[in-house]
Amino acid sequence: MKRLVLILPLLLLAGCGKKAEAPTPQPLPVTVAPPSKREVVVYREFPSTLVGAQEIEIRARVRGTLSLAADVPDFAGKRVQKGAPLFVIEPEPYEQQSLAAQAAVDRAVAARDLARKRYERVQRAAQTNAVSEIDVEIAAAELAETEAAISQAEASLEEAKINEGYTAIEAPISGRMSRLMVDPGNLVGATDSTLLATIIDDSEILAYFEVPEREALRYFELRDSGAAEKVYQKEIRLKLADGSIHAQTGRIDYIENKVDPATRTVKVRAVFPNESGALNSGIYGLIGYPAGPDPTNPTATEALLVPSAAILRDLGGNYVWVVDEDNIVRRRPVDAGDAVEKPVTDPNMPRTLETVVTKGLDGTEKVIISGLQRAREGAPVTPVPAEPIPKAEPPSTDR
User: Are residues 151 and 129 in the same domain?
Assistant: First the structure.
C-alpha cells in the first residue's frame, strides 16, 4: 500500500512534463465588397403646398336675395365650364334702374335737340342784329349744358346696366366648384361683397416652394448668362404625402426676383399637368429637383457608393472599415453624401440604401459591409467577398 502511494505522485509528475499546445485562432470572417460606381440622380427635396392654376372667389357685387340660376343642378365639388350660369341676385330692381337711366338719356337728348334749334335761331337773328351777342352766348352755353347732361345720363345708364349684369353670375373660368357659402334665399351684398363660392382651375397644379439662399447663389451668378435656362428645363418630381410619386413630371416656370430677408430663402414655382385630376389644391407634396451626386462638382453624374450600414460615425467624423492586402482592418475616413436606394431586379428583394461617398475612397478598396462588430483597427480578419449585386437601372434618389 505504501508503494502505491509513492508511485502515484511520480506518475503525476511525468504527465505534467508534457505540455499540450493550444490551437492557433483563425481570423474572424467579415463580408467585404468594393464600392460600386454608377450614375446617380439625387433629388433635392423641398416641402410645398399645391394650389390650382387659378383660384377665384365668386362674390355678390350687388345687393339682393340670392337664388340659383334656373335648371342648375347641385354643382358643389363638380366641374363647370366657363360661362355656365350659377346664381341670380334679385334682378328686378336693377332692371328698373336701367329703364330709368335710359329714360334720363332720352330726356337729355330731347333737351339737347331743343337747345340746338334755339341756338340756330338765335344765330340767324344775330345776323340781322335782332338779338344781342349775349343772347347768342347764352344759347351756346345752354346747348353745351345739354350735351354734358347727355354724357352724364349715358354714364348713369352704363352703370345701371353693369349693376344689372351683376345680378346674373356665371362661371368666370372652367374648374371645380366649392360648396355654397350662402344658401339661396339669403340677402347678400348688404354691407360687403358676400362670398358665394370658389372655383378652382386644377387642369394644372402650381407648387410653390422655398430654396435656401446658399443653394440659389449659383443660379443668381448664371441667370443673366443664359446658362441658368437649364434650371427651367429640368424635369421636376412630385412626391405625395403617402410616399407615392406623381406620374407626370413638372417644370420650374418662375423664380422670385429677390431673397426673403426674414427666411433667407427664394420662392420658386413649379407647374405640373393634372388632366387626370389626381392632384388637388391644398395637398402637401415634396418637390424633387434633380441634381448631381456631388454638391462640389455640379457636372458629375457618376458616384462611388457603399451600403449605408457600412458608414459609421464618431467624434472624428464618418468612416468605413476596409481590409488591406494583408487582411488587416484599417479605418478609412470618408465624406458621405446622399443616401440612395440600391438597384435590384427582383421586386421581392428588400430595399436597402447605399450612400454616396464623395471623398476618401477610390473604388478599389475592400469595404467591410457585414461583420462590422468584429472590426477594429489593426485586427486580422478573413475577408469573404459579397455576392454580386444584380445590375439594374440607376434609381432616382432623395436627399
Answer: yes
- Cα-Cα-Cα-Cα torsion 323, 328, 333, 339, nearest 10 degrees, comes to 30
Domain at 217, CATH number: 2.40.30.170
Flag whether the pTM goes above 0.90.
Answer: no
Report strand pairing: 302-307 vs 36-39: antiparallel
pLDDT tens, position by position, for the chain (399 residues)? 445 444 545 444 455 555 556 566 788 899 999 999 988 888 888 999 999 999 999 999 999 999 998 776 678 888 999 999 999 999 999 999 999 999 999 999 999 999 999 988 988 888 888 788 888 889 999 999 999 999 999 999 999 999 999 999 999 999 999 999 999 999 999 888 999 999 999 999 999 999 999 888 878 887 777 777 888 888 999 999 998 899 999 999 999 989 999 999 999 999 999 988 899 999 999 999 988 777 766 667 788 999 999 999 999 899 999 999 999 999 999 999 888 888 777 777 777 889 999 899 998 999 999 999 889 999 999 999 987 645 444 555 555
Whether the CB-CB separation of 174 and 80 falls below 8 Å is answered with yes
Residue listed under C-alpha cell 415634396: 286
Do 69 and 194 lie in one domain? The reply is yes
Q: Is residue 66 part of a domain?
A: yes
* Identity of residue 211: V
Query: What's the chain's length in residues?
Result: 399
Q: Which residue has the cell 387659378?
A: 54
Grid cell of 23 as nine digits: 490551437
Cell readout for 42 is 439625387
* CA 21, chain centre distance (Å): 72
Residue 348 domain boundaries: 28-40+299-398
